[in-house]
Amino acid sequence: MDTLKWLCYNKCIDKSGFEEKHMIQKVNLKENVNAMNGLFLYKRVGTLNNHMLNVLQAEHRTLDFHIHENSDEMFYCIEGEFDIEFEDGLTHVCEGDFIIIPKGTKHRPICNELVKCLLIEVEGTLNQENTGGAYTE
Length: 137
Prior knowledge:
Blueprint (H helix, E strand, L loop, with lengths): L2 H5 L5 E2 L4 E2 L8 H6 L6 E8 L2 E8 L2 E2 L10 E7 L1 E6 L2 E6 L3 E4 L5 E5 L3 E8 L15
Antiparallel strand pairs: 1-2, 3-4, 4-11, 5-10, 6-9, 6-11, 7-8, 7-10
Organism: [Clostridium] methylpentosum DSM 5476
Protein name: Cupin domain protein
C-alpha cells in the first residue's frame, strides 16, 4: 500500500493535488458545545460504532425518570456540574467526571445550573419523549 494512503484514512490524499477527501478529524468538545445557540439541545459531534456522541447544554432542568432497556449511557461533564438521581439516591457529577448508567437503571438528570456535557448512547436512544422534545440532529 502507498505510504501516503496508509498514513491517512481511505485515500484522504489525492497525490495529484493533495486534496483532502476523507481526512480523520479531531473534535473539540468545548468549541462545539460553546457554539450552540440555546439550552436543552443535543448536537451530534460524532459516532462510534453504533453509538451517538452528542454535546448538550442545560440549565434549571430536571428530566423525568426513565430507563434505557437495551443499552448503557454515558455522561461526561465538560463544564459545570449536575446530579443524576437514582431510585436509591443522587450522584453528583462535576467538570471532568463521567458516569455510566447501566441499561435498565431508572434515572433522571437534574441540572440546577448551567452544565455542558458529552452524552454517549446507542443510535436511536434519544427521542422526543425522553428529551422533552428538545432533541435535534
